[in-house]
Each structure stands twice: as C-alpha cells, then as structure tokens.
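Response to reviewer comment R2.3. The reviewers asked that we include at least one raw input/output pair. We reproduce the pair for EAL domain-containing protein here without editing.
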Amino acid sequence: DSKRRLRNNWQAYTPELGQLREDRLRMETQLRRAVENEEFRLVYQPQVDLRHGRVVAAEALIRWRSQQGEMRPDHFIAHAENTGDIVRIGRWVMQQACAQVAAWRAAGHGIVRVAVNVSYRQFIGDDLADAVRAILAEHRLPGSALELEFTERALIEDAPDTLRTFAGLRDLGVMLSIDDFGEGYSALNYLRRLPIHGLKLSQLFVAGVPHNHSDVAVCQAIAGIARSLGLGLVAEGVESEAQRRFLLELGVPVGQGFLFAPGLSADDLARRLTLEQAVLAAQTGER
Ligand code: C2E
Ligand code: MG
Ligand code: MG
Ligand code: MG
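Raw output as returned:
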C-alpha cells in the first residue's frame, strides 16, 4: 500500500508528485538568482530587557520578495540548504546585518549587537570563522557586535570542523547561542564541549506559560540549565504581559516577541530607538 511504498522510500509517479517536483525545481532555480537579483531583505526583531522593555539587541530575519510574493524563511531555507545556495545567502545576510549594526553603533543608538541565524550547511566546505573575521574587519566591528544563532541540528551534524569553527568564532569575540533550545535534540553534551554563550528558550514552550504545567516545567528546567552553566538566556515568542511577568520571575533577563515588536525594517527600528532615547532623556531630566 501507499504507506509501505513511502516507507521504502519509493514512490509511484502521480500527477501530484510531478507538480510538486516542478514547483520545487522552479523555486530552486529562482533562489539561485535571488541574491544577485537583490530579492532578499532583512527585518530586525528587537531583543528587549524584560524588566523595562528597553532594546538591547536585534535579530536579523530574512525575507524573500519572490515572484510569488513575499516569502517566509520557513518556506525556502530548507531548499537553499539542499542546493547549497544557503552558503551564499548566509554570507549576504552576515554582510547586511554587520553593515546595519555598524550604522546603528555610529548613530549612537543603544543597540550594539545584531544576531544572525546560521544554517548547519554553512559549516561545510567553507571556513565560517574566516568569513566572519573578514566581514567584521570590513565594517570595523568588534566580535561582540555579532551574535550567531545555531540550531541544535548544526551541533549534532558533527561536521569534523565544528569544534574548530566554534573555537575560531569564540576567539573573535563573537557571541554564540543555541536557537530554539529544547525543540530539537537537546544534546546537552554539546553544552560542555562547545564554547556557547547563551540559549534561546523556544517559543514552543513560552507559548504555554503561565498556564500549561508541562510548559512551565520545561521553562523552569531550561532556565535552571542556563543559570547553572552560566549561560545567557533569551525567551522567544513572548506575546503577552502574563508571559513577560512569568519569565521575569523565572529570572529570564531578555525576551523577544510580538508583545514588544515583530521584525521591523531597519528604518522603523531606528525610529523606535530614537523615541526610546527621547523618553529616557526626559526621565533622566525629571530626576
Ligand atoms: P527563529 O530564528 O527561531 O526566529 C524566530 C521566528 O519567530 C521568526 O520567524 C519570528 O518572526 C517569529 N516570531 C517572533 N516573535 C514571535 C511571537 O511573539 N510569536 C510568534 N508566533 N512568532 C514570533 P521567521 O522570521 O518566519 O523565521 C523563521 C525561521 O527561519 C527562524 O526561526 C530561523 O530559524 C530561520 N531564519 C530566518 N532568517 C534566517 C537567515 O537569515 N538564515 C537562516 N539560515 N535561517 C533564517
Ligand atoms: Mg533565531
Ligand atoms: Mg528561534
Ligand atoms: Mg524557529
């Protein structure tokens, strides 16, 4: 039957499958040209201090203005990983994000660091640390201006160079964090082996607090791991005031989510930072 056929990794040709394959090929062809056609842009989601909402950093998130309309990364990153185009795309993202944080720093905004998502494929056949060193130098940025977010997949893929790459990045002063922590394999072994600075508490669990008991338990456990290993912790997907308060009580210092802001254009984020500084200046003046 069809289930067994799928399990045997063999599929009969059907018109639907033909269509799917065509769609995939078309997307991969378009992706190949998307960098030079300047079809990508980055939005920046603020990471805020959960106590008072002040912006401390921003995560760069890619968007694709494809011929089919604006597309979310979940719909094309995996394809780009399959074809290997993610290496070029990832390099473009790093360039853009570093240029942007250099501009923010020069403007004297409070924002001094940008976080960039890195695919496991960017480890393979490319010296990530060398590429990062060159980009930082080009923009005259200290390593601490850049944070790289890896998913657990990048860590368990066990490319022979992972340890060397992480050590190289650490030596540059770049912050290294694990994205969507708890969602994947949570191979805690890597927390001991690799020079990680922080964890990002997956929105999968944040979504359920403060009411769902098992989500509460998982958040507590992850906060405990971060605390005892001396790691930073950023909560993802904070959507409500009740969640913010719960996380704060748990000792989570930083959060991002729709409660504060979605991914914003660089200009919109700059406007927000200017406003924030004005409010802060007014408050300081009052004292
Ligand atoms: P991520 O790194 O875990 O990013 C968080 C995702 O959650 C983003 O989706 C963001 O828009 C969304 N989000 C933020 N706050 C909230 C909230 O309060 N509620 C909910 N429901 N969602 C929220 P986005 O931008 O669609 O990105 C999806 C994923 O695609 C990212 O997950 C990341 O893994 C990947 N990605 C994004 N940009 C890049 C990139 O430049 N390179 C690579 N390799 N992957 C990227
Ligand atoms: Mg991320
Ligand atoms: Mg995440
Ligand atoms: Mg995610």
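Residues 84 and 121 are 7 Å apart (CA to CA). The chain is about 50% helix and 20% strand. Further pairs are available on request from the corresponding author.
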